[in-house]
Each structure stands twice: as structure tokens, then as C-alpha cells.
Amino acid sequence: MKATIRKMGNSQGILIPKTILAQLGLEDEVEMDIVNDTLVIRRPRNTPREGWAEASRAIAEAGDDVLALGEFPNADDAELKW
Fold it and tell me: Is the distance from CB of 5 to CB of 13 less than 8 angstroms?
């Protein structure tokens, strides 16, 4: 399949047909590499925030999850009208 390189703002790009994106499971983001003069586009290997829950749990279990600023009172809250 051939595709035309098009001007897109200050850049250039190609349009990938929706059917191809669906077949590959590509949605919002891709990874791109150049391998032997070939542009390779693939699904991102890692999902955003992958492993954050486990890391947070390990920090809490180690007791290293103290507040950075410590506790502080909200003495002036009584003056606020909601």
C-alpha cells in the first residue's frame, strides 16, 4: 500500500486508514523506530502508570509514605461560605 506524505501544520505526516489501526489495535499513541531504513510503528510496550499501584503498596509497607509537608490546620476554613 502506498500513502502520500502530507503537510500538517509545520510538520508532515501520513494518514493511516482506520481499518489498519483497528487491525493492529492502535488507538491514541504509538512507538516509532527506524530499523534498517524502515519506519516501524507499534503499540506502546508499557501502559501509562504501569506498576504504580505495586510501587505505592511497597512504599507504604516499608513505612516510607510520610507526608512531604506534614499536617497543617485549616484554621481559616470557618470563615469560608460554601
Answer: yes
Q: pTM above 0.70?
A: no
DSSP string, 9-63: TTEEE-PPPHHHHHHHT--S--EEEEETTEEEEE--SS-TTTTHHHHHHHHHHTT
The set of cell numbers assigned to 82 is 460554601
pLDDT in tens, 60-72: 999 888 888 877 7
CATH code of the domain made up of 1-68: 2.10.260.10
pLDDT tens-place string over residues 14-47: 999 999 999 988 988 899 999 999 999 998 887 7
Asked if 15 and 3 count as a contact pair (C-beta separation under 8 A), the reply is: yes
Q: Quote the cell numbers at residue 19.
A: 481499518
Q: Which amino acid is at 3?
A: A
